[in-house]
Amino acid sequence: MGVLCALPVGCLLALAAAFATKGSAALTIGARAASSTATTGCQLASPKGNVKHVIYVQFDNTHFRRDNPNVPSDLEQMPHLLNFINGNGRLLANDHTALISHTATGILTSLTGVYPDRMGQPVSNSFRYFKTDGTTRTGVSFAYWTAPLFDPAGTTTDTTPTMINENGKVAPAPWAPFTRAGCDFGAVATANTILENTAIDIPTVFGPASPEAAEVAANPGQAFADFVGIGIHCAQGSATCSAANNGKADLLPDEPGGYSGFNALYGAKYVDPVIKPSGPMTDLNGNVIQDANGHVGFPGFDGMEATVSL
Description:
Number of helices: 8
Number of domains: 1
């Protein structure tokens, strides 16, 4: 097993593990945490060709160095994680933390590999934006990769992409290199790679007149559990994201080199039956995964404890 562990000096801890195993290949990207399904054509270009699975776990606001020399750092207070890193890999502490360092900006910087001025979220988790009349309103950083600006106060005429890059286009998506290599890419609660809300993301992905949009209007709590927070971006031709499994077109209109013929599953309503056809999904303690109000599906971003995400 080969393991790569990278820890930003200030804000974020990212743990990536590449497992050399036999069998079909899978990509797991995560957490906020994640998982994925596999395709037989997955080809990850590792030096010896042995990498079959990639697991990426993202921790928010986890410090490597001590802020107070007399108080153990976050990582020192997580001995199981620290021992895992010490026993299996290398600790890289020369990461350049993005400024302003906050949840969305930090995670998206890690996922994209570029500073936030090149992926649209230099200020997070919320920001002010100008309307055409010169007044300002609040935008929120958490929205699906191709969604326009998300204003939780209501509709806006500003269709600027949430993930806008320095060229005025949607920034390259982190799953595209993997799906192009024939790998399925699963994500749980991983910033903007899955649906983050039901207001702007549902019409962006499913359409404003879709059954999913109708569910949002009729039962918003269940719709959030059904469609937000979980997804699989599939390789071309992957049966996992077939129309029979409610796969939808995975549209990245500005992706360098083009991106067509790819499908994705959005939400626990469509992902869970692929993972566990007998349903419902349960956590490591055998409890049905649901939110605080009993909606089965995604338990909410604050409900993604390790027993659930793993």
